[in-house]
## 1
Amino acid sequence: MIGSVIFAILFLIAFGFAFKKYSRIRRNILLGRDVTIEGPKSERWKNVLLIAFGQKKMFKRLLPAIMHLFIYVAFLATQIELIEIIVDGFTGFHRFFSGLLGGVYTFVINAIEILSLLALVGTIIFLVRRNILSIPRFNKPEMKGWPKLDANIILIGELFLIVGIFTMNGADVLLQEMAPDKYPDSGLLLISSVLGPAMFGGLSFETLAALERVGWWMHILGVFGFLVYLPYSKHLHILLAFPNTYYSRLEEKGKMDNMPEIMNEVKSMLGMVDAEENDFGDELPEFGADDVTSLSWKNLLDAYSCTECGRCTAVCPANITGKKLSPRKVMMDVRDRAEEVGRALDSGNVDFIAEDKRGEGVKLTKENFDDGKSLFDYTTPEEIHACTTCNACVEACPVLINPLDIILQMRRHEILTQSAGPSDWMPMFTSLENNGAVWQISDSREAWTKD
Amino acid sequence: MSDIKVPTMAEMAAQGQKPDVLFWVGCAGSFDSRAQKVSKAFVKILNALNISFAILGDEEACTGDPARRAGNEFVFQMLAMQNIQTLNGYEVTKIVATCPHCFNVLKNEYPELGGSYEVVHHTQFIKELMDSGQLTMKSGESFKGKRITYHDSCYLGRANNIYEAPRSVLAELDADIVEMQRHKSNGLCCGAGGAQMWKEDEPGNKRINTERTEEAMKTGAEIIAVNCPFCLTMMSDGVKAEEKQDDVMVYDLSELIVQQNQL
């Protein structure tokens, strides 16, 4: 009874806290500029099914794909048992589903046990890969410190959950024989019927009952822990992979987004329309993106969906050849900046209001926000200059994140708004403007046909 | 050598004619001495099959690809709108490009600016000619027993998902086709895209073309086949840097066909 009350309180605290945290992440994502997502819904759902649910892109690397699949399927299947655990928590009604489902119940619990064992193998292999084997993509500069710890916390959390489940079921198998009236028959559990007696055989009824509760609490506290920890972690992909694949662009990867806002200006420069209709007004607007508020919300959803696996960076030609650019770091930078802006907005501190917009009673909003920083304080020009726009990072991402889109928007900001950029490019631009060719060449374009 | 016939759109229009297809030559194909050979090779194929085509010649401008990828949308749109005016003026319906960057921009990015055409890359065009029976491979000894590896350009491959057309053209040659470890959607860039061609590398420990050329040479191939004038430059430079220019040749696909058929 007291157990139920404690459970209910913890349940409410965990969900209440999580709700607040997830709302904040939603708000941060919506700091991004609005953008209409085009293309048929059927194609989008296909991406969700194949790429998020089906993990199609994971299978570009077979071993991690299989290990990840174990953990993922175990995670999905355990949700069934989680319902039962929650019912137990609120009502004290033990193994609620066993009476309802009979043989099916035994099958489901066995499936969960086998998957949990496979997930255990996967988790241990992942811990070894992260910490013992020197796999380059887990040891890049951007992974030092918190990102590495974050990954390990998640993996150790998984171990905690799995140990909890087997402790609970192992003790339960023995208890079912001792007190069938209090512990309903789960049927033959392939793993726990061996593991239970091996670990806990010969212990007293009271000890076993306590162990069963320890396992139960480990599992449910682990779940609450995950729920509350996720918003602080890179692990949000378990939720955001689904909307992220749904909202991913369907066009050819080679197509860059157009900038319709300058089309009239260009037309008037070419004398194709009258100049008057094409005024930008008093001040030239900003072009491209230098902050999370000028990126699109989809770019920010990408950033929050990134689990820092580094497959993008592992295939990036610039990164492979020792340049600073790392597509994964671009995504981490965008998320870190979104967090920073979000925290500043939450503070309500009027010092964050742009100087020319301050005034009596003016409140801090994302529109008047200016902390004197930008995305360029995170991702340097040197990094974005190294990109060959080869789309390898876009192709590699298992959840359809597009780092290239962000890099290109930052390049646009640099060239169009800051009038900066690599000086090597200036002769190319000049030649294009003057001669319509990328090289300063005085020859006729037809000369090659005649020699 | 100069027995190729390359009419311009202006010349044809003056005679009241309109070609079936416009050959988009691009800056590299027009001005780069190595890429000019590819333009000529492709024209030889077109001429041999009596295909009705023309170029824009002096009326062609850069598609704007490097400007757009560098971030200079103004210059891109200026060039694009001029080109679209020219193309629409001639009522062009079909374009074939030997450069995948031009191909990508013409196909995917001009429609939003008012220029919609059927656009194919020359490797697709050659594949069509083979499929329709117009182009047949002569049985020659040119490539017998030779190893060829094919380098996917980013803008034909990942950017537009064209992996099979060039490979099926290569398959018609009597050669051993070997794949590099990273190929098709996993192919590695040559290092030129995204306007890198026009700037020095950022600080690093290796050049991208060296990385890619080493991979190509690991296959033991005597020929590296490419589909892009910039890959052609990058891979040729890579081979030269390894001092292997006498053992490993870099050719565009169209050049291999010209060699096989002795055009």
## 2
Amino acid sequence: MNLIELKNVYKQYSNGVTALCDVSLEIAKGEFVFVIGKTASGKSSLIKLLYRQEKPSKGGVFVGGINVAKLKNRKVYKLRRKLGIVFQDYKLLPNLTVYENVAFALEIYGLRSDEVRRKVMKALEKVGLKEKFKSYPDQLSGGEQQRVSIARAIVNEPKILICDEPTGNLDPKTSLEIMEIINKINEEGTTVIMATHDKEIVNKYRKRVITIEKGILVNDKEKGGYFSEKD
Amino acid sequence: MTKKRGDTSVKKIRIFFHSIEEAFKSVFRNASLSIASISCIAITLILVAVSVILSYNVNSFTSDIEKDVTIVAFLDKEVTQEQIDEIKTKIANLDNIATIEFESKQQLIDEMKEENADLENILNQYTEETNPLQDTYLVKVENIETIGKTAEEIENIEGVSIVKYGEGMVEDLVNVFDVVKNITYIVVIGLVLVTAFLISNTIKITIQTRKRQIEIMRLVGASNSFIKIPFFFEGLLLGALGSIIPIVACCYGYMYLYERFNGQLFTPIIKLVNPDLIIFNIIIFVITIGVVVGALGSYRAVRRYLKI
């Protein structure tokens, strides 16, 4: 069964810009998918539709059995609880420690504090930041901050991990470290959708690559590379 | 199934206490903004408290004056004791009567003698039979607005010759007092509204700086109510903290003034309301406004960030 399904999706913004035009795609459980494209190609819009930051203008978006297009604002949390989301700018709270930033995502479940502790430490261990749980975000490097944000995304063991240019702010070496962590999460069974600009990573990992250009899905290739249509 | 339901309610209780804990943490974590909100709440609530104290005093002053207005019913000269008693019963049977007091012409003459030594000699010439004064009933009414009608009814009773109550002046007084009372009510209501506006605006600014926190909460799957409830408690807490200074300042300030002026303002006519009678009400009023406006203001302010 497909975990994610887009059926003839159109996205037009109120200023008239068409970001996506008749996009259809299916992503199965356990897949790793790169979404690539130039700036303003529509790949960010595609990613935003998946976690209902944006609603499609037309067409159907199904994520984990939820019809995102018809999801009411106050029910959005039901979708987001199935997802982990990683952003280019980390979106950490500067006044919370590493531990608190990760635990933040668990507070909504009303878990016992020992359960929270166990889960948070497990997630931090996965991203290799167990030792720094007491630090504040500004005491960490960019790569470390991104790892905290990954730990926060996976702490509740979501089925789907959505990464919106997670290595966009990082140097190549750190980007590879982050990519290694995301890849490992995928190998453990989590479906990963990752929007990226990073040619090197896309070409190194040889995953399924979806290319968006001017809002149109121009290429969808297993074990693809960057601009693989020219291969 | 039952266990699952039990688990859910335990989780809900945990989330509830977590909300309260978060509210406290957040007040301390955002200390400078909390202090700004608390100060703003405190200043506006001081105004509210002062205007409430003023309005209590205006009310008490006007009703004191109103209570003093008396209808004097002069009885016919040749009334018998039997008639005097009969008139009293008739007056008592009318509507709007608070108290009836009889004053005989002899009592009146004695009072006049006491008040003025010069008059005493002249008045001494009169015996009980030649006393030119008339027996009177002093009647106080329950509702001063219909005093004219009551006076007329008393005048129609047989054996009553003339009725006086300060016609014209009393009506003017009632009208002026009505205006004054209405103004104090309007001022209090206006101040409460301004307070509500100021407090909710300050809280809005506080929340604006936490847009990111709300955004992230939404992204990690927090439901809207989960996000709103801590802000509700935080507003409530800020409101409660903000009402402490106004309560302490106004209550102690008023008690001090009351003592200092011996319970009256410049003249014995303007009696101040005893602080013991109103302080409890003022405390409740100020705290309620602080807490309700704080909680609702904050709850409303956070709503606009829940649309993403």
